[in-house]
Amino acid sequence: MKKTFTGRVVVKGECKAEALVSHGGFNTLASYQHSLMFGDKTAKCSDQNNPDLYGRAMAGKALCMPQTIGSTTGGLVLFCAASMERQAACLLFSKPIDSLAAAGAILADVWTEHSMPTVDSLGDEFLSFVQSGDTITVSSDGKVTVER
């Protein structure tokens, strides 16, 4: 089964990766804190309040979420994850991205060699359809294809 969604491009790029889905808000600091502090290169999610992601490796995955929540350090955390090569393959938002997450994704694209293509406003149907383990293909024009 294959379905394509179109969103707004925040950071241009292409990738193909395995989906990792959070149905609740993604707390960037809580999720990456242990990875950035203690050297976990797989970036296992350390946010115990996120049952969809807790304990799952985020590095190299197509991170699918409604929005980010939590600390004002969120953008810096995304930038640091990219600079330490622990970033997601891409960031996919069903809702419009917040300014902090956008800043982190854009800074990672500009200041590191580890860009995270970022697409927002994919819609609620996207988050209802996509499942962890699906294959995600992101095109530079904002098209996101989900295959299972």
Fill in the keyword field for this structure.
alpha/beta, single chain, 148 residues, two-stranded parallel sheet, 27% strand
Please list the strands of the largest sheet in the order they lie side by side: 1-10-9-3-5-7-8-2
The 3D shape can be described as: globular
How would you characterize the largest beta sheet?
Answer: 8 strands, mixed
Structural class: alpha/beta
Tell me the span between the first and last alpha carbons.
6 Å
Helix content: 25-40%
- The chain-level mean pLDDT equals 97
Quaternary organisation of the protein chains: single chain
Low-confidence stretches: none
Following the backbone from N to C, one meets helices and strands in this order, namely EEEEHEEHEHEHEE
- Radius of gyration based on Cα positions: 13 Å
Please state roughly what percent of the residues sit in beta strands, choosing from under 5%, 5-15%, 15-25%, 25-35%, 35-45% or over 45%: 25-35%
Work out the helix count: 4
Structure description:
The chain is of the alpha/beta class and 148 residues long. The chain contains four helices and ten strands, in the order E-E-E-E-H-E-E-H-E-H-E-H-E-E. Strand 7, helix 3 and strand 8 (118-120) form a beta-alpha-beta unit. Helix 1 (28-38) packs parallel to helix 2 and helix 2 runs parallel beside helix 3 (99-111). It starts with a strand and ends with a strand. 44% of the residues are buried.
